[in-house]
Amino acid sequence: MFKDLDPLLHSQLRLAVMSLLISVESAEFTFLKEKTNSTAGNLSVQLDKLSEAGYIKIQKSFRGKKPLTTCKITPTGIKAFEEYVNNLKQYIHK
Q: What is the pTM of this model?
């Protein structure tokens, strides 16, 4: 039987963010915005959803006088992403 896909990760933008974060130690907001071709507002909302689920950690700081937002995937996020990918493979291979 098919396993359910995590609805939080089934969103294209959230899946793209998680795909980027799984392969790096951390990523700045501007990097994620550029790589996902999203608007700042939409990306911010989706990052908040991932953070509330415990999938990513968001750190806000400053670089000089400019605000800097950095995101990092959590162990919970890694597990959720790996489960999502494995469950998706079941759909492809059946």
A: 0.92
